[in-house]
Each structure stands twice: as structure tokens, then as C-alpha cells.
């Protein structure tokens, strides 16, 4: 959240996106998206494949919600059902308070980038936005501000075909913001970008979240989303592994006590000693790893230290480690079995 606010402070002064009407955007208790039992099965009979499996989730209004999962997890399919592009096999829900079964009732308030940046290659960035504004019945006066917002203020007169992939993606996001949507759905906007492009994209997504807008953004890289998302949905093989505040996901990670004997020949004795006090103790490299799923990991570290001293084992290293978000995510994704 703090980093997201920091990105906001870099918003150009010239930003002219109209702020949303608070009466319609911050209704306490009304989520931006709410689905129950959302399922998509492709094919029939023995060839049937369920790629989105009874998903139930909510995205609160005004958050940046990250949708993370490996390739093929079902992120695009889920987003496409919210956009009325894919008909769910089962499930109900609402988007911006309107029924999922009636996309026409809410799509006018939703902007999206779902299938890569496809705009007219021969038109300039500005012409593209103006043409889309005319087609969509949106106010073209927002175009210069949107170009500024996406960092294309000085490239708006260049043709789309001359843009780098990152610039194309950013212009497509400007296009999605025409009409000042309450909900912005972005499917893998960082896909294919280099690290600088990814950083620019993160900053843009954080900026686009201003004014109470809800952003639902997917990536197969958790590290890409972690910095800008208040809310996280973790998907693997069509099944939701986590939904909730980003910080809550990390809080689930099991801390570990790591101890290394000064004398390598003491390692097996140290492992035996640690096993007396914990489950799943393992030797790793030159030390011992003790997961502490419950209780106080520091107290376990102190107990290990005391026991080692009692056995005459001198420790070279003793630390409490908490897996970082990426490591926890990988453990979750690899650990899920169906
Ligand atoms: N029209 C379709 N017919 C059959 N299978 C499909 C269809 N569309 C998607 N799938 C399959 O559904 C699964 C989920 O795909 P989806 O694109 O939703 O995942 P994803 O998480 O967005 O992955 P990626 O990051 O690779 O795009 C994949 O195995 C894909 O092959």
C-alpha cells in the first residue's frame, strides 16, 4: 500500500482523468466483483476439461487486486467470463453490482486489456484514442491526459506500429481508461516486457487505480504484482489457493529456524537434537532447518541454542527465516494437488 501511494505521488500534474463519483464508486459492502461457484469446462464427455473450477471470490471496491497463477491456471478464462467473452459453465455473481449473467448492464463501466494491445497500426497513438473515444461515445477531451498518464505524452503523434511492446501495452491501457471505468481488468499487462518496461507498467497500474477505481490485474509473476496490490487471488489449475489482503498471504508462510554448527562433523548430532523438538526437521547444506508452523519461532531458536550448548555444539549461525512471498507462492503452487 505504501509503495502504491509512492507511485501515486509520481502522477503527472497534468493528469486530467475525471474523478469518479464517490456516490457510485465507494458503496461500503458492495464488492466490485463477487462470484460464486464460477466454473468453465471446455469440451464434452471424456474430452471435457474443467479449467476454472468452482471459484468463489470477492474483490472489494477501490483495491488493486492481483490475480496470480502459473501459465494455464485459468486467469484469462476467469477474466473473460467477467467481461462476457466466455460463457461460464456454472456459477453466479455480480460485477459492479449488476448480474454476471447480464454483461450489458455493467460493461459500460468496465475497461479491459485482455488479448494484448491490438490497435490500428497506421494511426498515431492519439488518433487511436480519438477513434476509440468516438466509437465508444466517450469524451475525447480526456485523450491528452490519458497519453500523459501512460507516459506517451511526447509520443502521441507517432504511429502505433512504431511503438515498442511496452508503449503498445501502455496505449492499450489508455484505451481501456477511456470512459473513466469504475473497474479496470488487465490480463498480464507486463507479459513480454523487459525489467524496465515491467517497472513502468507497475507504476502505471498503480496510477490507474486513482480516484477509487478498482483494478484487477493478472500476472504469472507474483513479484510483479506484490508491490502494487492490496488484494491477492492465487490461482492454480483452476482452483483458488488464496484470496485476501496481500499481507495475509505472506503471513501464512511458515517461519523456519535455521542453525549451522561451527564444526561440520556436529551436523548429524544437531539434526538429531532438533528432531526431539520439532516435526519435518531436515538437514540442508551445512545446517538444519526447523519449520515452526505454530508458536514462537524465536522461542524455538532459543531452545535449539540452549540444547546445542548443553551438548557442547557451538553454532556458527542461528536465524529465524520467513520465506519471502515468491518462495511461499511457489510452495503453495507446487504443493497443491487435485
Ligand atoms: N477455447 C478454449 N478451448 C479449450 N481450452 C481452452 C480454451 N481457452 C483456454 N483453454 C485452456 O484453459 C486453460 C486455462 O487457460 P487460461 O488462458 O485461462 O490460463 P491463464 O492462467 O490465463 O494462462 P496464461 O498465463 O498461459 O494465459 C489452459 O489449459 C488453456 O489451454
UniProtKB/TrEMBL annotation:
Record-level Gene Ontology MF annotations: ATP binding
Highest taxon of the lineage: Bacteria
Keyword 4Fe-4S (UniProt): no
UniProt keyword annotations, A-Z: ATP-binding, Nucleotide-binding, Transport
Segments forming domain ABC transporter: 33-262
Homology family: Belongs to the ABC transporter superfamily.
PANTHER family, per the entry: ABC TRANSPORTER, ATP-BINDING PROTEIN
Name of the protein in its database record: ABC transporter ATP-binding protein
Amino acid at each position: 500500500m505504501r509503495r502504491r501511494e509512492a507511485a501515486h505521488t509520481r502522477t503527472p500534474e497534468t493528469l486530467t482523468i475525471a474523478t469518479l463519483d464517490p456516490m457510485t464508486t465507494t458503496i461500503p459492502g458492495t464488492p466490485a466483483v463477487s462470484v460464486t461457484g464460477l466454473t468453465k469446462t471446455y469440451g464434452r464427455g471424456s474430452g471435457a476439461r474443467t479449467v476454472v473450477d468452482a471459484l468463489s471470490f470477492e474483490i472489494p471496491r477501490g483495491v488493486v487486486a492481483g490475480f496470480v497463477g502459473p501459465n494455464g491456471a485459468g486467469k484469462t478464462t476467469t477474466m473473460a467470463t467477467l467481461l462476457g467473452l466466455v460463457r461460464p459453465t456454472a456459477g453466479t455473481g455480480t460485477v459492479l453490482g449488476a448480474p454476471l449473467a447480464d454483461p450489458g448492464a455493467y460493461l459500460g463501466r468496465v475497461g479491459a486489456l485482455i488479448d494484448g494491445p491490438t490497435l490500428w497500426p497506421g494511426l498515431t497513438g492519439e488518433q487511436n484514442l480519438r477513434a476509440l473515444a468516438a466509437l465508444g461515445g466517450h469524451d475525447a477531451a480526456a485523450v491528452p491526459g490519458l497519453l500523459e498518464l501512460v507516459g506517451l505524452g511526447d509520443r502521441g503523434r507517432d504511429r502505433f506500429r512504431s511503438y515498442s511492446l511496452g508503449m503498445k501495452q501502455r496505449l492499450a491501457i489508455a484505451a481501456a481508461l477511456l470512459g473513466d471505468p469504475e473497474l479496470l481488468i488487465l490480463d498480464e499487462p507486463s507479459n513480454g516486457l523487459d525489467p524496465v518496461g515491467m517497472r513502468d507498467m507497475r507504476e502505471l497500474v498503480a496510477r490507474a487505480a486513482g480516484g477509487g477505481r478498482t483494478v484487477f490485474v493478472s500476472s504469472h509473476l507474483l513479484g510483479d504484482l506484490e508491490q502494487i496490490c492490496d488484494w491477492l487471488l492465487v490461482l492454480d489449475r483452476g482452483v483458488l489457493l488464496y484470496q485476501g489482503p496481500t499481507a495475509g498471504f505472506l503471513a501464512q508462510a511458515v517461519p523456519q529456524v535455521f542453525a549451522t554448527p561451527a564444526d561440520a562433523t556436529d551436523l548429524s548430532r544437531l539434526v538429531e537434537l532438533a528432531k526431539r523438538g520439532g516435526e519435518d526437521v531436515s538437514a540442508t547444506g551445512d545446517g538444519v532447518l526447523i519449520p515452526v508452523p505454530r508458536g514462537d519461532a524465536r522461542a524455538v531458536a532459543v531452545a535449539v541454542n540452549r540444547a546445542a550448548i548443553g551438548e557442547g555444539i557451538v553454532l556458527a549461525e542461528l536465524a529465524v527465516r520467513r520465506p519471502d512471498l515468491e518462495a511461499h507462492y511457489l510452495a503453495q503452487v507446487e504443493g497443491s494437488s487435485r
